[in-house]
Amino acid sequence: MSFLSETLARVKPSPTIAMSNLARELAAEGRDIISLSAGEPDFDTPAHIREAAKAAIDAGHTRYTAVDGIAPLKQAICDKFARENGLEYRPGQITVGTGGKQVLYNALMATLNPGDEVIIPAPYWVSYPDMVALAGGTPVVIAAGIEAGYRITPDQLAAAITPRTKWVILNSPSNPTGAGYDEAHMRALTDVLMAHPHVWIMSDDMYEHLVFDDFRFVTPAQVEPRLMNRTLTVNGVSKAYAMTGWRIGYAGGPAELIGAMGTIQSQSTSNPCSISQHAALAALTGPQDYITESRAAFQRRRDLVVSGLNQCAGIDCPTPEGAFYVYPSIAGLIGRKTPDGAAIADDRSFAMELLNATGVAVVFGAAFGLSPHFRISYAASDAQLADAVERIRGFCGSLA
Asked: Which cofactor does it need (predicted)?
């Protein structure tokens, strides 16, 4: 009998974390590494947020809090949803967790039974299928390729729904593609969901504020208010305010679901860090200048990376609507060989050979459920990105 749980057979380690760790190890060995694998803003947390955290420590806010968040933060989240999304929640319909990942996981753990299905568009964030599996559910993946702008269609969604479907997960703008559902695209999907009242919607809005050009962010319950009583609207401060390490995510949803998620959290981590909660309160209620400034920087970096990659032989890189990722196709490189004779058989081998030859760390597309692609996070300096793109261009040009 194995000492380890059979649950581990249903999940795999995060490939994005694995690539980041490998890049870190190679850098520690003295290699010249440019790591573009981690989805993390490279800016400092804004000063007023850091100062609020220090003030919280000095004020003695260092003890346990309510399991799913302090009252002022919950009210600030209600105000944020009303102000920015037109969604009216009460504090009892709000939960605060240790990052958006915990919020999503709590919801799945609180609702899934064996055999329940969760529809997940691909490319997907690497954790969605594994969290569903951990909770005892069955991931149902819908592929949305480059030709569809990495967006699923209403017909695909309708065809995937069965009597066992419990959730559909929508992530806009998306990790890993940066693709977003505008109001027309979202309306087409919500129309389908209105016809299937047993299906709940999990909307991962973590990249809400990182949108470019004239793209306008919308969330499902905003587009179709009649879905609000079966929608969990998830967000957080990690990406918008460069607070990844602070670990604060939140969500609004029906009170019964929020209560059930609180029960799960009470027996796992209990409350999120008290200091981080006060920092998040300052983020949501304080000056918002940082968002505008960081958005401009990310759009500039996006344009640099998209332009550079589209000059690489065999790479096709669409222009994303948001987030800080690109998800180019390498269909034109499959079957080629490096100068050392190594074959580019798939996107995994592409990523490993690229790292070995140039020191540029990216994440292979199979990790996100759609090949042959790779993901670059352009949350890095302009100089690093320009250097990385040049290295990738040289690598592609060397393939025969």
From this structure: pyridoxal 5'-phosphate
Q: What is the pLDDT of residue 339?
A: 96
User: Tokens in use for 372?
Assistant: 């042959």
Integer Cα distance of 384 and 231 in angstroms: 40
CA distance 132 to 128: 6
Q: Is the bond preceding 123 in cis, omega lying within 30 degrees of 0?
A: yes
Provide the token pair at 132.
Answer: 């569903």
* 8 Å CB contact between 374 and 146: no
In angstroms, how far is the first alpha carbon of the chain from the final one?
Answer: 50
Buried b (16+ CB within 10 A) or exposed e, 234-252: bbbbbbbbbbbebbbbbbb
Left, alpha or beta for 309 (phi > 0: left; psi -120 to 50: alpha)?
A: alpha
Please state at what angle helix 347-358 crosses helix 15-28, rounded to 10 degrees.
20
Rounded to 5 degrees, φ, ψ at 242 are: 55, 55
pLDDT at 24 > cutoff 90: no
Pick from 162, 160, 218, 143: nearest CA to 185:
218
Encode pLDDT of 100-139 as tens digits.
Answer: 999 999 999 999 999 999 999 999 999 999 999 999 999 9
Report the alpha-carbon distance of residue 230 to residue 312 in Å, rounded: 45
**For 362, which DSSP code?**
-
Q: Tens of pLDDT along 219-262?
A: 999 999 999 999 999 999 999 999 999 999 999 999 999 999 99
pLDDT of 258: 98
Q: Tell me the three state secondary structure of residue 234.
A: strand
